[in-house]
From TrEMBL:
Similarity section: Belongs to the group II decarboxylase family.
Source organism of this protein record: Streptomyces alkaliphilus
Keywords: Aminotransferase, Decarboxylase, Lyase, Pyridoxal phosphate, Transferase
InterPro entries with a match to the protein in the record: PyrdxlP-dep_de-COase, PyrdxlP-dep_Trfase, PyrdxlP-dep_Trfase_major, PyrdxlP-dep_Trfase_small
Protein name: Aminotransferase class V-fold PLP-dependent enzyme
GO biological process, one term: carboxylic acid metabolic process
């Protein structure tokens, strides 16, 4: 059978000719983005899910893999234009639903370079300089959280959920090995015959429960530590649960929140670190969102004690203005990363290559092929610098306080709590016997359907154990002005009033 030679459609991006083609195609794509941006009337196209599905059906009518390749200019027009038209404009002042900051231009340029060169981090020959950049990034981030860089370790990850899973893995392996002298990663939990348990406060991120499930610990073996009236974990209750832990169960990790995504709660890290050390438990701090406070001299004291944690989750695609994925897992003692190491193989890490310095990072991650995310992060942070990063964080915090003050002054809105970071929780209080929870859920959907504003929703626990629906504004765009934010709140109030009037008249 005769093999077919690649057609003219195939052109490697990294060749001299390919780079010129990339330049032309990027300019064409940017022209499309510029045109779609100019035609927008809000943060998202109106029509809600039905409108998006209809647009997708029109754009995706052809096959994914046609018999013969199409002209790239036509493909860009067919796919990039509707993609851009149906995307959330995260630069819009009314895009306040999620932790998606608008990435800076330098980060986008670095992302393009990473894509063109397509380095990987699992083996030296897959990305020599990328490996050194990644190691340097971990050292720099370790220093930022207060670790000793020469002793700390870590890895870049796709996001906080995977970081938390890896932290829970290290906690399970480290503590159980110390307590039993055996390896759960090698022997399995059944063979060891001891049940690992985790402690965490109410409201911890759902990825902790998912990690317990995946690691064989089980969600039923998560012990919930009571919180005080501000939502912070009560240290003496954590110590009580550790002290009273039944025979046959091994507490392996105490998970602390270092900036919750709703109320910005930071658990008392110094006290929890002291308890964890005394009971031989791993302390993990989930600072995926809250780590942004590290960039602000004014807000940094919120995270006092972070350096006492055994591991820390940080997401720079939240408060780092870098595109996803830009997450980091840091560990105080690099040796704990052995949870992810495997036996040497001839294809990746032969002993003689390792001794000669040809060392990849396949033993520090759950991933093998891993893109060089450190490049865009490094370019972003070096471009912005400490002063600008601090100003950006402080500006977003100021916007949150501005929104909170406007909500408090509105006669029909209720503020969830004063925002310690940049998330603002509130809800509209309807009259005429309308259920506030159902009304606010419908209000959020109406705003999204019209395309005027994007807000999130959450549930806030009450002392009696019930919950209330609150809407959430997430401030991560320092270009937003207080006046623009006022307009968003006016839109929310006007939409709510119209819904209320319609319900009363029906």
């Amino acid at each position: 059978m005769t093999a077919h030679a690649p057609g003219p459609e195939y052109q490697p991006a990294g060749t001299r000719e390919g780079l010129e083609n990339v330049r032309t195609l990027v300019n064409a794509a940017l022209d499309i983005l510029r045109e779609t941006s100019a035609s927008r009337s809000g943060p998202v196209a109106p029509g809600g899910p039905n409108g998006t599905r209809a647009a997708a059906r029109r754009a995706l009518a052809g096959p994914l893999l046609p018999l013969r390749g199409e002209k790239v200019e036509e493909v860009l027009e067919t796919l990039v234009r509707p993609y851009a038209e149906g995307a959330v404009d995260i630069t819009h002042p009314a895009a306040l639903a999620r932790m998606q900051p608008p990435p800076v231009a330098s980060a986008a340029a670095a992302e393009l370079v990473a894509s063109v060169l397509n380095q990987s981090l699992h083996a030296w020959e897959s990305g020599p300089f990328a490996l050194e950049l990644d190691r340097w990034m971990i050292e720099q981030m370790a220093e930022l959280v207060g670790y000793e860089p020469t002793e700390a370790g870590g890895t870049l990850t796709p996001g906080g959920s995977l970081s938390n899973l890896m932290a829970m893995t290290m906690a399970r392996d480290t503590v159980m090995a110390r307590r039993t002298g055996r390896s759960p990663g090698r022997e399995g939990l059944f063979a060891i015959g001891m049940q690992p348990v985790a402690l965490c406060p109410e409201g911890v991120h759902f990825s902790i429960e998912r990690a317990a499930r995946l690691l064989g610990m089980g969600e039923d073996n998560i012990m919930t530590v009571p919180v005080d009236d501000t939502g912070r974990m009560i240290p003496r209750e954590a110590e009580r649960l550790l002290r009273e832990c039944p025979e046959g169960r091994i507490p392996v990790v105490l998970v602390a929140v270092a900036g919750s995504t709703d109320l910005g709660i930071v658990d008392p890290l110094p006290e929890l670190a002291d308890i964890a050390r005394r009971y031989g438990v791993w302390l993990h701090a989930d600072a995926a969102y809250g780590a942004g406070a590290l960039f602000s001299p004014r807000l940094r004291p919120m995270l006092d004690g972070l350096s006492e944690a055994d591991s820390v989750t940080v997401d720079l695609h939240k408060f780092g203005w870098s595109p996803a994925s830009s997450a980091v897992l840091l560990v105080r003692e690099a040796g704990a990363m052995s949870s992810f190491g495997l036996q040497a193989t001839t294809c990746l890490s032969a002993d003689d290559d390792t001794c000669a310095g040809y060392i990849g990072l396949q033993n520090t991650s759950l991933q093998t092929t891993r893109r060089a995310d450190a490049l865009k992060i490094a370019v972003t942070l070096r471009t912005l610098g400490r002063e600008t990063m601090a100003a950006m964080v402080d500006t977003c915090h100021g916007l949150a306080r501005h929104a909170a003050a406007r909500i408090e002054a509105h006669p029909r809105m209720e503020l969830g709590a004063r925002p310690p970071l940049t998330a603002v929780l509130f809800r509209y209080l309807p009259e005429n016997g309308l259920d506030p929870d159902a009304f606010n859920g419908a209000l959020r959907r109406r705003l999204m359907e019209t395309g005027r504003a994007l807000v999130a929703r959450t549930h806030i626990a009450r002392p009696d154990g019930s919950t209330r629906v609150f809407l959430k504004l997430m401030m991560l765009n320092p270009d937003t002005t207080p006046a623009q934010l006022d307009s968003v709140l006016e839109e929310v109030a006007a939409t709510a009033a119209a819904m209320e009037a319609s319900a009363s008249g029906s």
